[in-house]
DNA sequence: TCCGGTTCTGGACTTTGTCTAAAACGGCAT
DNA sequence: ATGCCGTTTTAGACAAAGTCCAGAACCGGA
């Protein structure tokens, strides 16, 4: 994946406000990453973020990208999605929703919230509370046989 | 996790029948793995399978374990579960059911089918069909604040 | 027994992600 | 400004899961 798309980059002040709002100190690197991420709903892996930043000439180290994505996820700015066994995706769509995962292409896409209601949740086992519900619908190419 | 439990091992003939039933040539190594897996419902990672076999003195190479688990999953003897970003689990419980995932302990457990009905599925995007639905309920330790 | 395709193997390799120790930074008080 | 100190960033080493490869072993059929 070397093709770079022209990602619209978020305004710096907006990004800064967003980080502060979530109690995150807006350092230079975090802002670069935030501006990239919050320019629209997307599903990005750490590697992809690193690639895009590199392509844009922004030098941010691998460790920082991993740390920052982890931080954003802990602070609920992002949602961590482990569906593809080979890498974690970060979902910038904050609202409650679920995912399609295309096993042939590895592509991840949103299911619009209305289409997939989850009515009845089971009780959490003793000593635990529910932290989140994640529904993944695995898709494959339509074909005969 | 170095503690080994005394896993009841499935009878060889049963295992062989099971493999044939699913169109899998029952080689020696596949039988070893099958006997281990189908001795009860469990969630095992490839590494863990390798460990258990090694502890039992059965020598099966890493590549074979990975290949075999992949094969079993493709043939629908097992269900691949990618929840823990660091490893894939193989679920020997074949029936339709979903999972709790304890984010504090990394533990994976079944949700009994009745407790978690999934009523309404969205339509698959054009050109694709639904291959499976996976619901994961993330749990964390109960605590104040 | 020979043959040909399938399976298994050790080991090298790749990829994702983590760790570490040192340097740089950022905010604050002086 | 200056100095201080805790936080953040960095490069690069490292770790773990999983894949790949080329040769050896195996398996069933003729």
Concise account of the structure shown:
The structure is a homodimer of 145-residue chains. Chain A is α+β, with helices and mostly antiparallel strands and 145 residues long.
Primary descriptors:
6 strands; 145 residues; alpha+beta; homodimer; DNA-binding; three-stranded mixed beta sheet; globular; three-stranded antiparallel beta sheet
Layout of SSEs?
Two copies of one chain form a homodimer.
Chain A: H1 12-21, H2 28-37, E1 43-45, H3 46-55, H4 62-74, E2 79-81, E3 89-91, E4 98-102, E5 108-111, E6 128-141
Parallel strand pairs in A: 4-6
Antiparallel strand pairs in A: 1-3, 2-3, 4-5
Helix pairs in contact in A: 1-2, 3-4
The structure holds a DNA duplex (30 and 30 nucleotides).
Commentary on this structure:
The structure is a homodimer of 145-residue chains. By secondary structure, chain A is of the alpha+beta class. Helix content of chain A is 30%, strand content 22%. Chain A has four helices and six strands. Chain A has helices spanning 12-21, 28-37, 46-55, 62-74, and strands at residues 43-45, 79-81, 89-91, 98-102, 108-111, 128-141. In chain A, the strands form two sheets. The first copy, chain A, has a three-stranded antiparallel sheet. In chain A, a hairpin with a 5-residue loop joins strand 4 (98-102) and strand 5 (108-111). In chain A, helix 1 crosses helix 2 (28-37) and helix 3 packs across helix 4. The radius of gyration of chain A is 17 Å and the shape is globular. The relative contact order of chain A is 0.13. Residues 1-7 of chain A have low confidence and may be disordered. At the A-B interface, strand 6 of A face strand 6 of B. The structure holds a DNA duplex (30 and 30 nucleotides).
